[in-house]
# Entry
Amino acid sequence: MCTGNGMAKSLLDSAGDSYSVSNAVFAIIRGHRRSLDVTTVQQGEARFFSVLMLTWGFVADVDIESEKYRWMGSARFDFYCFLRVVNMRKYHGNVQFVPAAGYEVYGEPLDRNESCKDEVPEQTCGVAARVQQCGYTGPKISLEDLEWKSVNGPFILVWLNNVPWSGEDVMPAPEAKFSDGFLDVVIVKDCPKTAFLSLMLKMNDGSHVKSRYVMYLKVKAFRLRPGQRVGNPDKGGIIDSDGEVIARGEGTYECSLQETDLMTYGPPIQMTVDKGLATIFSPK
# Structure
């Protein structure tokens, strides 16, 4: 769902400008700048940086598996979204997070020993891009001193957002800020199909977050431990960041021989936020 360029939409919308190429060009010409949070996504020695979003479950499935319908244009998302609602998938797994102030009510507390035990293993990674020791390695924070919470699956979707919009007409994170030092998380564990379809339709204005089926919170750090599909333990899921696959389980979509994953599906993937690390052109 990154085809609509969620970053451009978020920047233009924040200034009250309509989403268009000309407005985006004028924003660059004006030269106004703003700070932008950068998320470090890490699994063992594999590390990369995200500025838009990370998804697992329903949204990742739609984003990546709908590629075979690219000839339909942007309508492919609506079409495949409907197919996935009709044949709803759920995934086993676990998420852990450090909630921002005001969001401590979500999740079950983890004691310090359990939190440390579940940290990202040092040597667990797939065919990974290595970061040179002289390069940027992510924010210097002590995760051991933070109060972690945990939520167990199954999950329909887990969606982490750095900015409000993920596309021209999809706003999953209406409370997201460009440089607040937090990720906005949308979690849906269980939801009837008709109610879930209604949630999808409400994402054009962000009102889906009011649903009792949606867990919406801000986090300082996040760990995702993805599991297999409910009712089909031979099949895993897809983890998608900024529109690109970073990990996929067994039995997912077919890929070319040249395509490799950055990370391994199953072991925990950890996300931490570096507040205002990047600078981006903005309408104002």
Residues 121-133 have pLDDT under 50 and may be disordered. The CA atoms of residues 127 and 260 lie 6 Å apart.
